[in-house]
Design a protein that fits this description.
Blueprint lengths: L6 H35 L15 H6 L1 H30 L11 H33 L7 H4 L4 H31 L1
Helix pairs in contact: 1-3, 3-4, 4-6
Length: 184
């Protein structure tokens, strides 16, 4: 017995998975933001058990500004990831993927935007990592990078560059498709 999955079914599964990931990323971004505000304004002891078990109490005791900058990097990365999946959901939901004519401006714009977002995530992860390393050099006890949500900077940049190349290929495909339509 052979099971065949159509492109339409696969896109529906991807849409559902994207929704699940998007909701998780929104919870993460909201948790980071609310924990930061809570630790800075109401209860500094909350930094001891920051989001996902990261202990940022030493950083908050060392300097509130440094705490704010480090959490800023974490929040920006989480928000960019959520925005990326928001864009994916919108594209899948609005059915902008036309398989009859795959080279279209909407898809090229989508891939370009996702590539820029991946590059931005990579840069903010890298800056957040460098900042955490600098804080460690200042003798501030910092949690591991994976607890800060800033791991994988090189992977995000790699993915961004690959998607940027794919966007340029799609752009060239549109040019060739337009030339072929004009010659007929």
């Amino acid at each position: 017995m052979e099971i065949k999955i159509t492109t339409k079914q696969l896109l529906m599964v991807l849409l559902i998975l994207s929704w699940i990931i998007f909701i998780g990323l929104c919870v993460e971004a909201g948790g980071l933001l609310s924990n930061t505000v809570y630790a800075l304004t109401l209860n500094p002891a909350a930094a001891k058990s920051y989001w996902m078990g990261a202990d940022l109490s030493n950083l908050l005791q060392y300097d509130r500004g440094y705490f704010l900058v480090q959490t800023f990097f974490m929040i920006v990365v989480a928000v960019l990831k959520a925005l990326m999946f928001d864009r994916i959901i919108r594209t899948l939901h609005n059915k902008k993927l036309n398989m009859a004519k795959p080279f279209n401006k909407d898809l090229t714009r989508f891939v370009s935007l996702i590539s820029y977002m991946a590059l931005a995530i990579g840069f903010f992860c890298m800056w957040g990592n460098k900042y955490a390393e600098w804080l460690t050099q200042q003798h501030v006890n910092m949690p591991d990078i994976h607890l800060l949500g800033l791991e994988g900077a090189s992977i995000w940049m790699f993915m961004g560059v690959i998607l940027l190349v794919i966007a340029q290929i799609f752009k060239r495909g549109i040019e060739i498709q337009t030339e072929n339509e004009l010659t007929v």
